[in-house]
Specification:
homodimer, disordered N terminus, 223 residues, 7-stranded mixed sheet, globular, 2 domains, 45% helix, two-stranded antiparallel sheet, Rossmann fold, alpha/beta
Chain lengths: 223, 223
């Protein structure tokens, strides 16, 4: 076992904090790219779109408190968070379902820059086989088990239609995949010990609609 | 101005609560579809993946407290939340950038079912014009202003490459769009009064990686 306390499985970071760590990581990367070496909790909180008390509380779970009067060392904090999330590791990923969304995901530059390496693209449709997307050849879905074993894949991405998604998830779990990112509009049943996260592309639109509605009614009040 | 207090622009719901309302809405829709008429805050919290104290606090902003010993009326609570978010309205949406991701978004059934109606698909590349995606014809980007005015579009979706995204945002804002959903890996500068939300497809993968890393280190402890 690693000596790092950050991977101590007994220490629980609240799920809401875990969900914000990638957002802090992105904000810190932007600051590093802009040449910023230190930042206050207020600056970082603003860049990440949270309030600074919540930010300080979140970072305290990582043992990061900054330096009074100086703030946080941007590079070091970025490293701490990346290590905590695990994106300093290499994560081989398979994507199943190479339609429009699968193509878009295979081309998505944000995966590779965060340690996610797309090692295989799989599709049940033979017409898609041999096509290369972002340098990776599309292969038959039947190759799943062999690829997972050979490449030690722990994370699978489902970009199939909803009707196929449970079958794909079952095969992924049987092959040894323990984390699934589901883009299909479906609820997956998986055994204990397997994590599933669902991406709902409409959530952000709904948040915009909420604010848009309030802007309209504010305009009506003024009128 | 509407008489509904739910659109009173003076009453502020915390941003974190706003972000969870679509998640509650999805959980309630699943319960309705399963034929459930009432549910406890614990049941709803579990379906939505939050703790029940937070759920009760969130719903209290909407004036929803449930009935002691009975719980929440699932249908009514769904209506309350949908109204609060604004998804009981019709929201005309334009999508700019009809590559793989734009195609996937145009085909995404989750938009229409939440009140978002894709009224136009725009692309700068003439080779994409006249193609129909999900029944909507791809048109030149130059048509943006006319479409926004004719269809009263308030929400724009950017699915272009990063290099084009700021230009597209500028044109959207000039045309009168006040909410932008940005799928391009870029940070957009917009004037006050315009809301931008960014979808980062790697955030959920990073959350999975965090748990995956902890599963690996837990397995090492046992071994």
């Amino acid at each position: 076992m690693s000596a790092r306390t950050s991977s101590d499985p007994a220490r629980d970071i609240p799920e809401a904090t875990v969900a914000r760590l990638p957002v802090y990581l992105r904000a810190l990367t932007t600051l590093v790219d802009a040449g910023t070496s230190t930042c206050s909790s207020e600056e970082l909180a603003q860049a990440a779109g949270v309030n600074s008390a919540k930010l300080r509380k979140d970072l305290s779970y990582l043992g990061s408190y900054g330096t009074r009067g100086v703030g946080y060392d941007v590079e070091y904090l970025r490293y701490q968070i990346a290590r905590e999330i695990g994106v300093t590791q290499d994560w081989p990923v398979v994507i199943v379902g190479i339609g429009n969304l699968g193509h878009a995901l295979a081309n998505y530059s944000g995966f590779r820059s965060r340690g996610f390496r797309v090692v295989a693209l799989l599709d049940a449709d033979p017409r898609r086989h041999q096509e290369a997307v972002a340098g990776v050849v599309v292969r038959p879905f039947a190759d799943l088990e062999r690829i997972v074993e050979e490449q030690d894949v722990a994370i699978g991405v489902i970009a199939t239609p909803a009707v196929a998604s449970q079958d794909v998830a079952d095969r992924m779990v049987a092959a040894g995949i323990t984390s699934i990112l589901n883009f299909a509009p479906s609820v997956l049943a998986v055994p204990d010990g397997v994590d599933v996260r669902k991406v709902d592309l409409s959530i952000e639109l709904q948040i915009l609609a909420y604010h848009e509605q309030r802007k309209s009614s504010a305009a009506e009040v003024i009128a």
